[in-house]
Amino acid sequence: MRADARKNRDHLLAVAGTAVSEQGVDVSLRDIARRADVGLATLLRHFPTREALLDALLRTSFDEMTATAGELEASSSPEDALVTWLRDCVAWTTEYRGVTVLMAAAIEDTGSALHASCVTLRAAGARLLTRAQAVGAARADLDGTDLFALVAALAWLSDQPSLAPRADHLFDVVTSAILTRPVSAGTGGAPPSGP
Fold first, then answer.
1. pLDDT of 127
2. Positions of the chain with pLDDT under 50
3. Structural contact between residues 128 and 72, judged by C-beta atoms closer than 8 angstroms
4. Residue 179 phi/psi, 5° resolution?
5. d(Cα 53, Cα 13) in Å, to the nearest integer?
6. The pTM is what?
């Protein structure tokens, strides 16, 4: 790709990121083009569909969250790694309004441009969960699909104005239900309250 085309593409992605953060994944492509000070045809030349634009916008974040899981796996206890990744993943999904619905649909749709990234992200979380389960630190009756659904549910809570103030508390409630033993103080998870 030519340098000027790359610069235009990067500018469109930056503008799209802001627009999706403010208005959600259903933001008008025409509005994104207007904000970027380009014509709709220019936007569509770079990103022929909304999903192609969202895939380009989200792929880097998916890749970063997947890499973070690997780093945590190598550097933290199983329970700390799981809770830290879960918190980071929930925080990331709240950056883009409506992304959790998109992710849930993409994971089931093998034809979706986002499918491979979502499957890889879910697998990264599942590895952390399996690692915690192997040492008895997490409930054995959960799997990667459950964990992915909990990320979506926790992100949804943060996106609800009336519930957002309770999001951290509810995150701690959920993680203490996942874990069978306390995490270290640095990860922000609450210790389990019972069996």
1. 96
2. 187-195
3. yes
4. -85, 150
5. 8
6. 0.79
